[in-house]
Amino acid sequence: MKAPAGKPEDKPARILQAALTLFAERGYAGTAMPDLARHAGVGAGTIYRHFSSKEVLVNAVFQHAKNLLREQLLRELHLELPTRALFTQLWQQLARFAREHPLEFRFLELHHHQPYLDEDSRAIERQVLVPIWAYCVASRQAGVARDMPAEALMALIWGAFVGLFKAEYSGYLQISEHLLMQAEEACWASFSPSSTGVGP
Amino acid sequence: MKAPAGKPEDKPARILQAALTLFAERGYAGTAMPDLARHAGVGAGTIYRHFSSKEVLVNAVFQHAKNLLREQLLRELHLELPTRALFTQLWQQLARFAREHPLEFRFLELHHHQPYLDEDSRAIERQVLVPIWAYCVASRQAGVARDMPAEALMALIWGAFVGLFKAEYSGYLQISEHLLMQAEEACWASFSPSSTGVGP
Amino acid sequence: MKAPAGKPEDKPARILQAALTLFAERGYAGTAMPDLARHAGVGAGTIYRHFSSKEVLVNAVFQHAKNLLREQLLRELHLELPTRALFTQLWQQLARFAREHPLEFRFLELHHHQPYLDEDSRAIERQVLVPIWAYCVASRQAGVARDMPAEALMALIWGAFVGLFKAEYSGYLQISEHLLMQAEEACWASFSPSSTGVGP
Amino acid sequence: MKAPAGKPEDKPARILQAALTLFAERGYAGTAMPDLARHAGVGAGTIYRHFSSKEVLVNAVFQHAKNLLREQLLRELHLELPTRALFTQLWQQLARFAREHPLEFRFLELHHHQPYLDEDSRAIERQVLVPIWAYCVASRQAGVARDMPAEALMALIWGAFVGLFKAEYSGYLQISEHLLMQAEEACWASFSPSSTGVGP
DNA sequence: TATGAATGAGTATTCATTCAT
DNA sequence: GATGAATGAATACTCATTCAT
């Protein structure tokens, strides 16, 4: 009979959860360890039994969040679909991630490229990007994406997506399912070569 | 004849400059006041003669940066231009801001909607948004923007723009003048209603 | 059949041994209990089953070491020997102790008269000193020791002895059997009244 | 008009003094920085303006104490004196140091060869020893010191000296001027070759 | 007015000790 | 009995802010 009690008994999980929440809210430097301990419902020392320093902790959170994103983004991806459909699928997976894991989403936005991220964290970051990058390169070669560097395409689409959800949690906007699909179409339009000026 | 020493500029400006630089680099919470004083080349106490607290200082920086953005964005705006041309103009003003004031740009991205921003800062934020919002609303009514909330359109375009420049200073990308224009076209495509299904 | 695992020895002994080692190396305040537990190969809590606090533990180590010194110093002491021979014997017993029990020797040097030593520890300290003191007093009355307080004689000889061995484990010196005997002679010279100026 | 006030205004000096006192009493590891600050009558942060860490502080104290010892020991040393007289002079200088600077004396005894001492501290340690070592070597070559390694001679005499003063501050003994001279004679006896067996 | 030394509450982290298993 | 995870007070150190000069 283990840990049937009220509070979830898994301390590391509680600590990660609290860290995710506070880092997403206040950022790494803005979060104090004693505060974090209180939120996790553990003693301050307990954190250090599981994570040897604040830096190690933030990297653990980063890697958890990034892995989750990778799984949600790349799982059940039907690469055989036509480019347009695949785009929709990617968009929806992203949206599902942002919806189901808002803290992870905000955390990742806030802790990009920070100096305390270690090599493992950076490696996972790259792991997420590579398949998307490949998709962009392939689309471009197939003539169904604009003639821009894959990196630029990704930056525009990812940026637009992030902008949309930031606007929501900033209170400017409520994203309905319908709006989500409209935004997807808008982004597809910025991704695929425009038909403007394309002959008769 | 006052202060003929090393740097002649006036103190408040030096302090604001140092604050802008460090906040943009390390964030508000990650920046220490004594460090900031050293960067500004003034005594720690001097900061407090001009800005009564760290919060007041960050708000001053925010307002300076946001005002600069507003001026660069809205100055010499030819509202009588056709929507498409106005879009290009806005895009170019934004790009000029990001290019000429990279610190202000990064600072603003990093300090959105933080709890230490006061009412004045939030008001200025809105001041910047309102004309853009009006442009979106008008475009939509004229049928030259997609049928989405103006807030969503702004979020998508602003997000894409920010994504592009973040990719640049993250080292993923080098933004040439040509690329900038291609990106503008892509964003316009996501802004204007797609011609899909529109047929004779 | 209990605890057939790795180290078979009994726990209290293992704990005392680890405490002796670490206290001798790093001092009382410089030694952490969890570290000590790891060195002893026991759980942290186990220490407290046998020693109710760190202070109790250090006193146990002190008493063990001091008792060992007492035994080695006073056992098989031929009090009937002439003063000179007895001096040599004491010197050799001391040397044997320092050689065979270097940790105990270092520990005792490092933890003299510390405020956490309890009355029992202080009592044992005195028990060791009393017979030596008696030897000094007797020698002096017999005219074979210098005309100084017994305490001063003891301090000089003990100090010289300790200095010699400290020099060895500080790496300044290697104490051969021959050197040990030379040193003994030198100390005897400082103990016994000089013949200088003694004439008919 | 500077610092005429009750308490000496020199913060670094006050901090060094408090550090000397507490380290001499409780040892390095046994002394807490906030305690030290309170003793020095300064804020905890003030210590760090002058000494960048506890280690830097203990090295500063060590170097101050060792330099003082060196000056008192080697100053006005009449190297042209006969060996016996020079020995007395060294002894008296040492005694003066132990008398006038009991805290420095205790501190040095307690912090020998500790791992936190830096190269500068170790260098000064050697600087003190070298001249004494030279004296021993010269004496030995002149046939007025026992035929032992200079290091052993030093260890015995220094050890005896330290033993004597430790006995005093441990309360076993009161060292009168007369006793000090008797002890000096005893130590000289252990230093110089015994006349035993030398006869007509 | 400007300074920067000084402060002490606050930070990350450690450690003697406890207690559920 | 033995364990080692958990604790929270204590530790070394930092930082926003003040104030004597």
* Largest sheet, strands/sense/barrel of chain A: none
| Cα-atom radius of gyration of chain A | 20 Å
Share of residues in helices of chain A? 55-70%
For the termini of chain A, the CA-CA separation is 75 Å
Q: Strand-residue fraction of chain A? A: under 5%
Q: Helix segment count of chain A?
A: 9
CATH architecture of the largest domain in chain A: Orthogonal Bundle
The CATH top-level class label of the largest domain in chain A: Mainly Alpha
Overall shape of chain A? elongated
Number of individual domains of chain A: 2
Uncertain runs of chain A: 1-6
The pair of chains with the biggest contact is: A-B, 41 and 42 residues
What name does the CATH topology of the largest domain in chain A carry?
Tetracycline Repressor, domain 2
Structural class of chain A, by secondary structure, is: mainly alpha
Beta-strand segment tally of chain A: 0
Protein described:
Four copies of one chain form a homotetramer. Chain A is mainly α and 200 residues long. Chain A is elongated and about 60 Å long. The model of chain A is unreliable at 1-6 (pLDDT under 50). In chain A, 68% of the residues lie in helices and 0% in strands. Chain A folds into two domains: 8-52, Arc Repressor Mutant, subunit A (Orthogonal Bundle), CATH 1.10.10.60; 58-191, Tetracycline Repressor, domain 2, CATH 1.10.357. At the A-B interface, helix 8 and helix 9 of A face helix 8 and helix 9 of B. Chain C binds a DNA duplex (21 and 21 nucleotides) through residues 2-3, 11, 32-35, 37, 42-49, 53-54.
